[in-house]
Amino acid sequence: MASRMQYCYNHVLPLTAMVAVECTNVGLNVLFKEATAKGMNRYIFITYSYAVGTLLLLPLSFIFPSSRTVIPSLKFHLGSRIFLLGLIGYLAQICAYKGMDYSSPTLASAISNLEPAFTFILAVLFRLETVALRSSSSQAKIIGTIASISGALLVVLYKGPKVLVQWPLESSEPNWVISGILLATAYLLFSIWYIVQTQVLEIYPAELIVALFYNLCGAIISVPVSLITQPKLSSWILRPSVAVIAVLYSGVFQSFSSLVVTWGLHLKGPVYVAIFSPVSIAIAAFMSAIFLDDSLHLGRY
C-alpha cells in the first residue's frame, strides 16, 4: 500500500498536475486575449495577477508550513535569486502577452514547443541533466529537442491551408513573424526561469514559500512599470466585464501554477516540467476557435 502511494505521488500526481497547469494556462491565454481586446492593459493585468496570487499564497504559507525540519534562513544571496525569478517571470509574461497581441493563443501554444528544447539544452549546460548518447532516454530527449525546434519553425514560417472554421485571423503576415520572435523569447525566459527555480529549490526546499516570494517579487517589479506606462488611475479601475474574470482567473491559477510548477521542479526537475508544454496546442486550437473565432490552419495561414 505504501509503495503504491509512493508511486502515485512520484509519477501519477506530477503528470496529472502538469497537464492541469497547461489546461489552466491555455484558459488564461484565451481570457487575456479577450480582455485586452476589450481594452485591458497588459501591464496592469500582470500586476493584478501577481498581486492576487500573492494574497492567495500568503495565508496558505501559514496554514501549510513546510514539513521539513531544517529550512535555511532567507539570506541576501537567496533573496536575490528569488527576485531574479520574479524579474525573469515578469519579462517572460510581457513577451508572451505582447506576442499574443500580434497573433493568437494557438500560436503561443504552438511556439511552446520550444520550451522543452530550450530547457533541455540549458539543463545540460548547467549540469542539471546528463546526456549519454548510448542511452535511449538521452536519444529520445535529443530527438525531441530537434522535433520541438522544427515544429516551432514550421508553425511560424509555413503557410498552410485552413482545416477548421471559416473566420480569418486578424494578424497580418509581418505581425505573425514578430509574434513568433516574441513568443520564442518568452519561452526561452521561461526555460531560464525553470533552471534558476531548480537551483533555488536546491538551496531552499520550501515550495510554498518560494512560490509566495516569487509572486511578491513579480508584483513589486510590475507595479512601477505599470504606473509608468499607465499613469492614469482610471486605467486601473476594473469594471464588471471579462477583464475582472480574467484578472481573478489569472491570480488564482497563477498562484496555483507557480506552486505546482515549483513542486514539480523540486520533485522531477526542469526537463520533466517543460515537456508538458506541447500538450496545450490542441487545447488552445480548440478554445481559440470556439471563443475567439480564430481559424485553425496547418502552419501559419
UniProtKB/TrEMBL annotation:
It is a multi-pass membrane protein. Its main location: membrane. GO terms for molecular function: transmembrane transporter activity. The keyword Ribonucleoprotein does not apply. One of its GO terms (cellular component) is membrane. The chain crosses the membrane at residues 12-32, 44-66, 78-100, 106-128, 140-158, 178-196, 208-229, 241-264, 271-292. SUPFAM superfamilies: Multidrug resistance efflux transporter EmrE. Pfam families: EamA (PF00892). Residues 27-156, 181-298 form the EamA domain. Belongs to the drug/metabolite transporter (DMT) superfamily. Plant drug/metabolite exporter (P-DME) (TC 2.A.7.4) family. This is WAT1-related protein.
